[in-house]
Amino acid sequence: MNLHPFLRSACFAALIFPLSALAADGTSTKPIAKVNGVSIPQSRLELVAKSQLAQGQADTPEFREELRDVLITREVLAQEALRRKLDRDPAYIAQMDIARQQILLSVLFDDFLKKYEPNEAAMRKEYDKVKSENTGSGRKEYLSRHILVKDEAQARAIIEQLQNGADFAALAKEKSTDPGSREKGGELAWSEPERFVAPFGEALRQLKKGEYTRQPVQTQFGYHVVQVLDERAPPFPEYEAVKPQIREALLARARGEYIDALRAKAKIEKVGSVSAAEAEKK
Fold it and tell me: What global pTM score does this model have?
């Protein structure tokens, strides 16, 4: 096991992990090591450990001991950077400002979630609203089948055979070049026309149940003879199946409204140019 990539990663990667990861008990600030008299608190180890554990790292004594060594090395390097007064470097100051903002945003949105976490009633209401908007919209999906061949003459010959009473499924198994549907008699899954290439989808819209195209339908794949077996309004998913998406949608909406409200109240002034070339001149 080797944790030393910590030393090569961006120095703030662990710090922007949500502050809720810190241990809540009174031992979180107990030192786990000292470097030149400067304590490394248990809370720092727990913060970085939690980030690694979330990625699948096993929480073992060996892991924690090596992590302690990594934190000691980082402290040694950080003290050397301070000795050389690199904390006054503009690049350091700029990165610290970004890190400070990131931590503040993390805490802000953790607090936001506590207040705006949608309850069951809100999610049910949103589900019913979206379901209502998608019911009776006129959208259709089709159960269809097709026979795909390479040239137009073959497609016309198949249409003639169908007109003379040939079985569509049998012809598909014998002549279709589509490996995905050939053995199923050319049958395709229930789909809306938009999921197919344009000429094929348009052919579906023009057909009634049981009808097949009387002219070959050309696409980039070849020439199709298309038949509609059935049509229906797209079934709407059950509530439990889309509950996570509904929650995320409500949170995203609330978060967007929250941000918009804060921006509306703020006095914002855009000053100067944001051009990189202009910045270099200053």
Answer: 0.54
